[in-house]
Design brief:
homodimer; alpha/beta; Rossmann fold; 4-stranded parallel sheet; about 20% strand; elongated
Amino acid sequence: MKGNVIVGQSGGPTAAINSSLAGVYRTAKDRGAKKVYGMLHGIQGLLQERYIDLSEHIKTDLDIELLKRTPAAYLGSCRYKLPEIHQNKDVYEKIFEILEKLDIEAFIYIGGNDSMDTIKKLSDYAIVTGKRTKFVGCPKTIDNDLALTDHTPGYGSAAKYIGTSVKEIIRDGFCLEYSNGVVTIVEIMGRNAGWLTGAAALAKGEDCPGPDLIYLPEIPFDLDDFSKRIKELLKKKGSVVVAVSEGIKLKDGRYVCELGSSVDFVDAFGHKQLSGTASYLASFVAGECGCKTRSIELSTLQRAASHCASRVDILEAFQVGGAAVKAADEGDSGMMVVIERFSDDPYQSGTAVKDVHKIANDERVVPRSWVNKEGTYVTDDFITYVRPLIQGDVAPIMVDGIPRHLFRPY
Amino acid sequence: MKGNVIVGQSGGPTAAINSSLAGVYRTAKDRGAKKVYGMLHGIQGLLQERYIDLSEHIKTDLDIELLKRTPAAYLGSCRYKLPEIHQNKDVYEKIFEILEKLDIEAFIYIGGNDSMDTIKKLSDYAIVTGKRTKFVGCPKTIDNDLALTDHTPGYGSAAKYIGTSVKEIIRDGFCLEYSNGVVTIVEIMGRNAGWLTGAAALAKGEDCPGPDLIYLPEIPFDLDDFSKRIKELLKKKGSVVVAVSEGIKLKDGRYVCELGSSVDFVDAFGHKQLSGTASYLASFVAGECGCKTRSIELSTLQRAASHCASRVDILEAFQVGGAAVKAADEGDSGMMVVIERFSDDPYQSGTAVKDVHKIANDERVVPRSWVNKEGTYVTDDFITYVRPLIQGDVAPIMVDGIPRHLFRPY
């Protein structure tokens, strides 16, 4: 590379997003980039000329290893939506003025659907105006809802944490004894796609029966049927554990969480902020069945649990970061790196690049055929898909009993 | 030993309670016990003659290792409170009839304050009626609120999980950007004692500023002062993280969680079931400061997270189990094993036995001098106390990407 590289992170953080950042940095340096800049808080920070020289932060190979194990966006995240080019040309002129000043050859953006929209717009603008900067996206989202890629970095680690935690919750539930039984509802992220909620089935194995019911947001939720199933289960066992997506909806389109409490926040992309599905269902079940109920939200923990990351995920995230730099260096622009799966067992995968115009804002959901007929559990095909992505560990680097992270002074 | 041993587990489960069970089993076998029985669901199950022969479940040394890594009570737990002897002699006669039938020489009960009350009553009854069975308690509680022992098995692992998770939450919060800032309230268990909540301070280190405020249940909580502090913090930083005990109360004695929602459940010991402190405070802060807020309950996860257990804790839990059998075999009864600390650094500890009459139902709270003057953080003395208890890891035995546990068919 002759010029410099700039990299940013956007959207909801994951346990693997910094491994992609480490991959970008390592490959950019390997390919001769003079400077590798990091935008602070993504494109929003770049517009305010907030960026750092990553060499001042990543000084040793140990720092690379720490960065791979540091959860959340090291550079800071944002949820800034670029205006359409015809709506506000000034924003684009400002961005390219900064990129030219910094002699940026490759602009790498690590994020989800919304971030790929940013790559698409900047790349389009560059082509139209004859700018030389290349724009490449790195997929990242625990939600695993990006199109065209087999899966997204960040998903495997979240799935591993969910499988592990749900198994521990099941164990906890089984040891309790209440005269009318105990029902535990575990609420898992994933607004429209059930990839994360389905990962609760990973708890199932020779040593664990797994959750009793799993409800994905792709399938309309029926309160009466749910109540009937819980009552049947309570006849057979003292502890019932149910995994539900935060985004399950009734047939009429109302979110289950809306039944109990108000939805109080809509983000810049118009996404409703959901919560309270499990707590609503716990009250509902207590009323219907007269049993003890508990609601558990895996909340932010499921996207930040680097201490329980998947080795496959962290390594793929690193590779994807490197592949993005390589693609830009070889002249690609308006592209996103994707992961292609060659086989499930033994698991084999590789990276490729695809046109970001085909990806942006297209949410990939769990296929109907990977959910059972009743809509109450994922199938073996789902497990075969997700199982390879949670393999192996990345041992935290422990200092005085707590995992060490790479620190950026704020 | 000439006779048999029976062991039970009671109260809220922990990540270390099965390590004590493993210790009981190992030492009982080593000392020549013919049979080691496990009561299913504690004394309540024993009254229904529900018990198992542990040799049929623990067959190999690998099973011992798996048991040490299995969260929640392997034998099942209960919250059954024995009546006073003069109130209901029948219950005692029934229990001793079963113990005699099984030729029980040592009765080991792993639990917290309420379980030690059981040991006390059974031991008193045995002495009065001339029965030969010895009754010894094994301390267990994530709450760390048992008197006479330096700390309780289960606490160290919960503290390690809390420190690790709060650090990951802080990292997540710092990378977000909201125009008016974001305040995250993390709710931690501990009804009356702040040992667990104080462990949030373990997140603090060279690479992490730690939570901004920590509120223990020992100190009356002041909403106005809290609001003032949050506003001050938001002037200086974009993300504020607060750790609160589920049991914080106002000066007038009302629980903070009662301000927002109703307390709906009281257990057999008359303990109010608390929840909703963080969600109430998150709404309160949103109203006061106009910022984005999040509430996170560490919930059951903090007591079940075997995948993040402390080596010191798991090994001490094992030792305590063994020490209980040894004490009974040597003729002690009505005693509880305690852990004594000889030094902080290097950490050195050992076991001893103390009279359970001095322990039962006496809750040990965090000393006032281990909380700062303002009541908003723990002091260095607190950290010096807890730090040794979270040292070292017990690597989970991973099978297909998920920790393996020892399974008991239900």
